[in-house]
């Protein structure tokens, strides 16, 4: 792993620090004396006058380096093992106050302390730098020079123009525990983000797509500007002390810190089976705002390079850049996802799951690389690639590959996430250029609170205007509380720590991540209780529970124009729903379609009629949907499976796209009864003679094939709503 | 992925070469113009007088570098995708003449040619090196110096003592397609080797352990010395031309090239269901001789550093080193494997398969790192860790984790292997320090042929003295033919290419790998026919086929003292085997035990009575096997499952360890009838009242739980043999 370590320093014996912390971790004491004796007694002081390094010395140094690198990486792996074992214990004991990421962070902190305070305060062996005037070189300086010093000929390589911060006194033992920052962005983040896209529960995501996009785009922009402005105000009154911190720096910090990562909160939501819409909103926002924050920060950075003061043209250019990069990254991700879908559809590679999984993996990582090579944002491309893969490719995979790909990315996500968090913990103590400015850090906490507030509350107000099912105040508070910062903010902040301003940003980000993860993470359960958020919503159970159960959940009828609960219409609906069942949903969907937003209707039709049949074996055959002139092409693209589908009702979760124009939530109804009542009470064009639809496995969701159930349940709920539901907010805890 | 690229060079526009080859591969032409226009028109010639680089320039250069790195890695990923698709096509069409690794190699070659002959022949922008006499620096030269040249202040960092080969004119575009050689050893090889250990079919491996260890240890040593001596003879008559090539270099080359890697041959063996013993011998030898060759080469290297001439003491030290490193690496691997087994046994982590799989993965990779950190050989440790994990830990894993871990390492193995082979293909053309010495390369082919010959034939002669079932001449020829070289030899050779001798070794190794993989690989099927090797041995079917089928496979009785086929003893045995079935095996095993080698008997008893019950839920409870004084400890260590086992017969594949003292092979019998006849015809201590044994899942084998079947079948075979079998070799094709 020598290659991934960033700073190669002078040879040194096994550092006591690492050895100690490692001892603490692994408890494998019996093997250590050997390592120790091999590397010389630790009590030998560094020679005061260094000896001339020979070739053998330098080889030995490289060997020591390699050993140290191995030891170092091993330390992190053992940290992860320890985290895993503790987390198992927590899960076993149903202790939910600390999430695995929080635990990884804590263990990292402990190890960081040990490394820091046991490491030898080595004075670097060689003088750090020396200015040598050599005016004999004209023009461009050479790539390498050989200095003929008194100790012999030495090779020096050109590191570029000299900047003072390049040469700082560093403790080589501590910098050994440091990885190349690009590792985070190029190796550890992509699987995390891809997994988010691939495991996205499309059903609930698309139901709340309006809200999610609003929070992600508008919200992140608002948060960036609020945080930037507040920070700049504090900088003006001296919070950053003597560090030069421009407004653009403040904006950049705002963008970096606006990437929320409520993995702790979501894990608890998942465990507690919290309300699905709240889950979708928090999850969707966090996934999408990572993408926005990443592009926003690079845009601000680019903007800062061209101009320091405010400039209208530059601002517009930056905005154009933002849109261009977002569209480009989105496009690459989507195209690569579709390309994989085509490959898996038109080859019989599914007969060889290993090959199929490998191809899936390679195509997905290529997406990242392609976007980076084209100057787009790989992380964003990978996110949309993940969503596309889940939507199309997943349908074409063999059963084994479905399991394999899900498990593979789950594993990579787990490892990468916990590695980042334990690294964060360690780097609080091993990063050597921290800028501890208490004022700035406190100001930052204030600013992110304010930024989050200006994101959630006003935007929700706006959203609620258009939503049938309002986001109630407790949900808003919970969303406000879910603004944890995590891996993405850290990766963005650690990417560049060359200037003092950036170092200050890094220190502040680290503090914010730590406090929000540990503090908010451990308070989530408590918060759910305080805010009376409904938990224990077993989605599956809710969908399959008997009709009566849904019925009794609801308050007695209150509306004036609604049909009475025991009236003839009620009984008709009951009978209808019980007897006719699934066969009705398609026609109901058709009847309902006009209620959805126009854009979604267009998209849904296009996707359902053209994209899905082209890219997967699902959907109606293209020979039906394409105009007659394209018939040969259509025949070419349609698989035999699709013809079979023709006679079946396709129940895919996209149905929600259409159904959810009315933004229903089962069991908890707030308003909009008029709409749903109309729909449910007009089932005249039912076609009960159609065969029962096979549950299409659509997307990498946990609830595959539940479409029918959900639709039926929802119809029941709609029915019950139409029989009378209070118009006010009611959250059942 | 910037971090994994080794040489950072001057900024350059997108190289035409990479773009072209990538175009060829991906066919995604629509996205390229954007990339191109972004990086400046390619027709612009390099400025003759370079301008002074500013900070913005260097940032941009880093950005370009990153893009180029991404493009490069993407090229390899697309190569792999292409390989996968082609391989699928081959599998689909049952075309077996080219294995995926050979294909990866071929595609790599094609892309290498394109990169090579389309790359701009750039003259490096900056003068490569310049010797500057600076006598003002006394003693130790500084880590960094700042040169005050006329173009401004530049930072130069110390690269160590100057050696001429460090500074060579390189084509930056080509060196971009080059990875850090340590990547191969530290990242790509470990999963390949671990997978070999984890997927090892213990049953057949242990049956042939004697032969495998002989070929691996003695054979590799013989091969190393023969190759080394032959090469030295050729060097003395001038095969290496003007390159300085010492005897130690020759020996090192011998060690490097002695690591066989018949992955192509094994894949065909697997597809064709070739004789299981031949498979086990070829597979086992290749796995173990990798370990031996790796340690041997590092020992020779160390030996070469201390002495150039032959020195008895140094030789003994080297031998001691070899043994020490082997034992140490073996120990680390085994201990870590057992530690993982303990962790999975005594925690209930199996309830969370994700955590379990992560821990398994982390512990396995930690083994590599720990061995490296302690100065041992990580690859060897990982091999034995894999075997231990398969033998103990695998039994404790949950069903899901069993599948997950197998699939994960299968995937990693596939990706790593094909990446290495496609990289090999590319580097034939992109490696810039090839030493094409036709004489040396031809001599090397001769030497490895001779080395392999002196390995296989004399050692088999030796082995056959002690084997009941001889390795026949055709098998020997097939083993001789299976001496392909592959990933390990390549990784060893690319590790250091600093001196000209090493570069010559690298070039030669590359040629040998290519020729053996492509030539021998494609001839394997033909060879199987020529050598009349029995194929279509469906292990499962063979074990479960009716008794008559086995019977008719065998030639009519010929022996004189054997009981007649239709005599009373024969009928008794038939009845016995049919009626009593599995319940007998334990007692038969007991009766047979004395025939096994003493060492294996000791090991088997220890493993079966103490290790297995301690580390897994299998085997007899420790409360039974440990002496009474250890009762509290035994109670502590024994799981409830073990008590249940107490009343069952444990059919694990280790039984073979004991049974296979007689080295039987089903259906093909050569000699040793006396032994087996005695065994089978004494089933008097049978205990038919015992309940039927549950098939214990033991080891990551494909044939889990077949123990009973195999034993029964074998008993049948033994019976049939005892009724009369010819003493001469008979291979059924």
SSE diagram, text form:
The structure is a homodimer of 733-residue chains.
Chain A: H1 16-26, H2 32-38, H3 55-92, H4 100-118, E1 129-132, E2 144-149, E3 152-161, H5 172-176, H6 181-198, H7 202-207, H8 209-236, H9 247-257, H10 263-272, H11 276-306, H12 312-346, H13 353-373, H14 378-396, H15 399-430, H16 438-466, H17 473-481, H18 487-494, H19 500-530, H20 539-544, H21 547-553, H22 568-580, H23 585-592, H24 598-615, H25 622-625, H26 631-637, H27 640-646, H28 655-659, H29 673-680, H30 707-722
Antiparallel strand pairs in A: 2-3
Word description of this protein:
Two copies of one chain form a homodimer. The first copy, chain A, is mainly α and 733 residues long. Chain A is built from 30 helices and three strands. The first copy, chain A, has helices at 16-26, 32-38, 55-92, 100-118, 172-176, 181-198, 202-207, 209-236, 247-257, 263-272, 276-306, 312-346, 353-373, 378-396, 399-430, 438-466, 473-481, 487-494, 500-530, 539-544, 547-553, 568-580, 585-592, 598-615, 622-625, 631-637, 640-646, 655-659, 673-680, 707-722; strands at 129-132, 144-149, 152-161. A two-stranded antiparallel ribbon of chain A has the order 2-3. In chain A, a hairpin with a 2-residue loop joins strand 2 and strand 3 (152-161). In chain A, helix 1 runs antiparallel to helix 4. The longest helix of chain A is centred in the N-terminal third of the chain and has 38 residues, at 55-92. The radius of gyration of chain A is 30 Å and the shape is globular. At the A-B interface, helix 2, helix 3, strand 1, strand 2 and strand 3 of A face helix 2, helix 3, strand 1, strand 2 and strand 3 of B. Strand 3 of chain A pairs antiparallel with strand 3 (152-161) of chain B.
């Amino acid at each position: 792993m020598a290659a991934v370590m960033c700073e190669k320093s002078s040879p040194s014996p096994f550092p006591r620090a690492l050895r100690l912390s490692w001892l603490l971790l692994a408890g494998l004491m019996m093997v250590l004396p050997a390592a120790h004796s091999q590397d010389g007694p630790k009590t030998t002081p560094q020679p005061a006058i260094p000896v001339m390094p020979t070739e053998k010395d330098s080889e030995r140094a490289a060997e020591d380096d390699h050993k140290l690198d191995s030891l170092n990486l091993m330390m992190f792996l053992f940290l992860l093992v320890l985290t895993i074992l503790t987390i198992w214990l927590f899960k076993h004991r149903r202790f939910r106050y600390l999430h695995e990421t929080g635990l990884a962070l804590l263990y990292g902190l402990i190890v960081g302390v040990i490394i820091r305070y046991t490491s030898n305060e080595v004075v670097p062996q060689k003088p750090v730098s020396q200015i040598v005037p050599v005016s004999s070189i004209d023009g461009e300086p050479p790539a390498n020079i050989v200095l003929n010093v008194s100790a012999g000929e030495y090779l020096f390589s050109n590191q570029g123009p000299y900047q003072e911060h390049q040469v700082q006194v560093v403790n080589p033992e501590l910098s050994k525990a440091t990885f190349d920052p690009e590792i985070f962005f190029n190796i550890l983040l992509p699987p995390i983000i891809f997994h988010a896209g691939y495991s996205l529960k499309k059903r609930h995501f698309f139901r709340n797509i309006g809200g999610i996009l609003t929070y992600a785009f508008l919200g992140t922009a608002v948060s960036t500007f609020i945080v930037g402005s507040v920070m700049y105000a504090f900088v003006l009154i001296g919070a950053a002390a003597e560090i030069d911190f421009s407004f653009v720096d403040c904006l950049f910090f705002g963008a970096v810190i606006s990437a929320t990562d409520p993995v702790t909160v979501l894990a608890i939501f998942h465990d507690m089976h919290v309300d699905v819409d709240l889950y979708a909103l928090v999850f969707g926002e966090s996934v999408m705002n990572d993408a926005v924050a990443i592009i926003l920060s690079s845009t601000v950075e680019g903007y800062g390079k061209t101009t320091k003061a405010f400039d209208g043209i530059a601002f517009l250019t930056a905005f154009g850049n933002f849109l261009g990069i977002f569209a480009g990254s989105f496009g690459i991700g989507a195209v690569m996802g579709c390309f994989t879908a085509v490959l898996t559809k038109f080859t019989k590679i599914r007969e060889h799951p290993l090959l199929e999984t490998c191809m899936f993996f390679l195509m997905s990582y290529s997406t990242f690389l392609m976007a980076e090579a084209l100057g787009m944002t790989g992380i964003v491309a990978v996110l949309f690639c993940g969503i596309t893969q889940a939507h199309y490719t997943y349908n074409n995979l063999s059963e084994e590959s479905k399991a394999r790909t899900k498990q593979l990315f789950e594993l990579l996500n787990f490892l990468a996430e916990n590695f980042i968090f334990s690294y964060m913990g360690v780097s609080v103590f091993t990063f050597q250029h921290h800028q501890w400015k208490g004022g700035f850090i406190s100001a930052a906490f204030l600013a992110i609170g304010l930024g989050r507030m200006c994101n959630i509350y006003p935007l929700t107000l706006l959203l609620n205007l258009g939503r049938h099912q309002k986001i109630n105040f407790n949900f808003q508070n919970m969303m406000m509380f879910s603004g944890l910062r995590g891996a993405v903010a850290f990766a963005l902040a650690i990417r560049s720590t060359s200037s003092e301003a950036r170092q200050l940003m890094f220190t502040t980000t680290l503090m914010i991540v730590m406090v929000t993860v540990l503090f908010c993470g451990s308070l989530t359960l408590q918060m759910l209780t305080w805010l009376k958020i409904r938990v224990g919503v077993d989605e599956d159970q809710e969908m399959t529970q008997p009709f009566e159960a849904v019925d009794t959940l609801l308050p007695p009828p209150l509306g004036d124009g609604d049909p009475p609960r025991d009236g003839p219409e009620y009984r008709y609906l009951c009978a209808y729903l019980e007897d006719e069942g699934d066969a009705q949903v398609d026609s109901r969907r058709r009847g309902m379609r006009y209620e959805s937003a126009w854009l979604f209707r267009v998209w849904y039709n296009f996707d359902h009629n053209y994209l899905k049949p082209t890219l997967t074996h699902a959907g109606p055959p293209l020979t039906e949907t394409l105009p007659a002139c394209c018939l040969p092409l259509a025949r070419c693209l349609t698989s035999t499976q699709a013809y079979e589908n023709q006679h079946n009702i396709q129940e895919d979760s996209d149905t929600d796209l259409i159904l959810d124009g009315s933004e229903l939530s089962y069991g908890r109804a707030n308003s909009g009864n008029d709409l749903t009542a109309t729909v449910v009470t007009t089932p005249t064009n039912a076609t009960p003679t159609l065969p029962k639809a096979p549950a299409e496995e659509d997307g990498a969701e946990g609830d595959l094939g539940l479409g029918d159930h959900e639709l039926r349940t929802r119809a029941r709920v709609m029915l019950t709503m139409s029989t009378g539901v209070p118009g006010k907010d009611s959250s059942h805890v």
